[in-house]
């Protein structure tokens, strides 16, 4: 499929960012495969939803950020969704190892986990006690390993994320520094960049993704938010101390979707027959099938989706390396028996997600617009 951008395995993907920055800091046990400047302190600002293609296409709205588009883009991994990408960043591993394999996915009791709320998809019951994040994602994070090596490690993220399931799964090991607006996000990052060192700070900005979902990427509200973000990074650049590096990245890109043309997994018999449970999100579906129905479901979905996407078995996706070079045994049951990823602007909606399926901006699939993320580097 010429529209598929496969996850990158050559040391230039999202899981490589933090280990590479630590390598540039000279921390033992970490190697810089990306090529950051040597530095004393480092920070990474992740802008949710800022795809490489989106920034390039809207350079006039973010001239400072666009001026930094001098390096090849990184790849986000699969699926191109926030929960997976943040865990890939935080652990330095792909989804096949860390196990956060989608926006929703099968959990041990037979339901779907919604990692953003760490609750059951159907009834929104918390799963923090029944399936703790440290059990679902038991591997050490990059923050754990960096702190053990003597690095001052901090996260500057929205205050409401403190103690959340996703924070515990993806970001444990860092000092949590809750922020509420641009001002304290910038301040927290600058404090870390000015520390005695070595220090590493992770910052998160989510408003661009929010407006892209609601209004569509490239809409006027989205462009105005991008301009504000441009000013934030320019301000950080002006105050960047000598010997410090700031990297600006994203977790995924985004495409504009038309809900009126969506496939409907609830009313279309071809997409319902033999399906036990539907996970993932509108552009990257995990399809869990009834016993003995795999062949029929696969054939029906392939015929119905046609050339508007790609439908294959979970085992085929694993073999293709979509979830990374290693898929551990505990993670395999979380991956759909059948996977469906969409091209162009197509989506597969479900009544279980009335809000999500109606959004103007979507992501999750493996198009260049979703998979390629910018790598913007300042300082050193």
TrEMBL record:
InterPro entries reported in the protein's UniProt record: Alkaline_phosphatase_core_sf, Phosphodiest/P_Trfase
Pfam families: Phosphodiest
GO MF annotation list: hydrolase activity
Taxonomy, superkingdom: Bacteria
Coiled-coil segments: none
Gene3D superfamilies (UniProt xref): Alkaline Phosphatase, subunit A
Protein name: Type I phosphodiesterase / nucleotide pyrophosphatase
